[in-house]
Amino acid sequence: MKPKQSLLVTAIALLLGLLPACGFHLRGEVELPPALQETYLESKNPYTGMARALRVELEAAGGTIMESGEHSSAVLHIVREISENRILSVGSTGKASEYELFNEVVFSLSDAEGKVLIKPQSLRMTRDLVFDETELLGKISEAEGIHRQMRRNMARQIIIRIGAGLRQQ
What we know:
This protein is an alpha/beta fold. The chain is 36% helix and 32% strand.
């Protein structure tokens, strides 16, 4: 190996070794709070949207989704869920050329007896999407995929917020 190459390899190895020192680490699984081990999801749409994303994240973290609130350790209420596309800009033809993809969820947590553990909290997320009507089907599919990804990220954040809120009590 040439001296310049070995110096470059050494520098890269040193930089990679310093990455963990700055706090960087790959996103792993979310740590499930004990209160969410056996959760009942209460939602107007229990098998779509945010409820589906929460179901996936809770089960991936080792939790169980209960069929009723009676025997659950907690009831996670999805109070409100909004998922929409807003026009950001219009092209010279008068048609939308850029959208803002917007998701919002309001959630709360109570125990099986109805005692409020986490008061209603709101979580919002937006992403921009450049829209080209000549690629209509592809852009619609891309928007749906971005909304799904946003809901999964929000579901993870909900679990993390609940864990933090319960630790403060």
